[in-house]
Amino acid sequence: MKNKKYPFIVIGAGVSGMTAAIYLKRSGHDVLLLEQEIPGGQINRTAEIENYPGFLKIDGPTFAMNIYQQIQNLKIPISFEKVHSVLKNNEISVITNKNEYICNQLIIASGRNPRHLEIENEEKYIGRGISYCALCDGAFFKNQTVAVVGSGNSALEEALYLAKICKKVIMLNRSLEFKGSKLLYDKLKKCDNVSFLFQTHVIDVIGDGNQLTGVKIKQNDQEQTLSLNGLFVYVGSIPNTKFLEDLNIKMENGFIITDEHMCTNIEGIYACGDCIKKDVYQLTTAVGDGAIAATTADKRE
């Protein structure tokens, strides 16, 4: 492992992290961007974006790659490594699976990961019928029957995408109403191949050992089995902050606590985007968080 020093490091090349890196670079600072997967983060899982100002409609991967192109144009170095831990003494140490970096100021934009149903056999059939990304895996279920679990915007958006390619889409909602956009729900109701089951809980998944064949659900104390080719799960997300366990940073349920300037309780460390505790998790707030974090860090350099 090598000790490499940068004035600024941003952990996470999602929308918020890339925004922060762009603002820092345009302010004249050298900044390193660390990402363990692909630029864009969760937005790569979104088929269509219609609520971001300035774009009538754009798909998630294109939106992410547009920002990444700005990163490349500005010659911001990006290294694909997994961060294992962060330590703070006189300087801030960022330890990855490949290197150890030192920086004066750190912005954490590590995002969230999809939450699982945590039921028996779920792990066994991930990638074998169970998916957490319709845009990634929907094409495998063309002209087949699938179910979508969830009630928020992600579930509604991805169900609309699946309705275009699947024979049938069954919406499984744990409550009596959807938490997501009424506009999206109204669009779904107009789809002839979409049906809805409310107050429904998935209690088990069924398969032949190699592929998912159905799910067992419980609705109003009655159990039944649905025959399915695919199950898409959208029941929330878990903040990707486990690597901060050795850092005395304030968190609530895994979400980093910041003030309005994106400052954490540790001097020189900021956080933004989906990994922080806030009321609204949207593209617009992710961009705003990243801009604020970078501007605050710039002023305190």
Polypeptide structure, described:
This protein has 301 residues and is α/β, with parallel strands linked by helices. The chain has helices at 15-26, 60-73, 134-137, 153-163, 182-189, 283-299, and strands at 3-11, 31-35, 78-80, 83-88, 92-96, 100-108, 112-114, 130-131, 145-149, 168-172, 194-197, 200-207, 212-219, 222-227, 230-233, 237-239, 251-252, 255-256, 269-271. The strands form five sheets. Strands 1, 2, 3, 4, 5, 6 and 19 form a seven-stranded mixed sheet that branches. Helix 4 (153-163) runs parallel beside helix 5. The protein is elongated, with a radius of gyration of 21 Å. The two termini are 27 Å apart. The model has no long low-confidence stretch (mean pLDDT 95).
Tell me briefly what this model is:
This protein has 301 residues and is of the alpha/beta class. Helix content is 22%, strand content 31%. The strands form 5 sheets. Strands 1, 2, 3, 4, 5, 6 and 19 form a 7-stranded mixed beta sheet that branches.
Write the topology of this structure.
Blueprint (H helix, E strand, L loop, with lengths): L2 E9 L3 H12 L4 E5 L24 H14 L4 E3 L2 E6 L3 E5 L3 E9 L3 E3 L15 E2 L2 H4 L7 E5 L3 H11 L4 E5 L9 H8 L4 E4 L2 E8 L4 E8 L2 E6 L2 E4 L3 E3 L11 E2 L2 E2 L12 E3 L11 H17 L2
Parallel strand pairs: 1-2, 1-6, 2-3, 6-19, 8-15, 9-10, 9-15, 10-11
Antiparallel strand pairs: 4-5, 5-6, 7-16, 12-13, 13-14, 17-18
Helix pairs in contact: 1-2, 1-6, 4-5
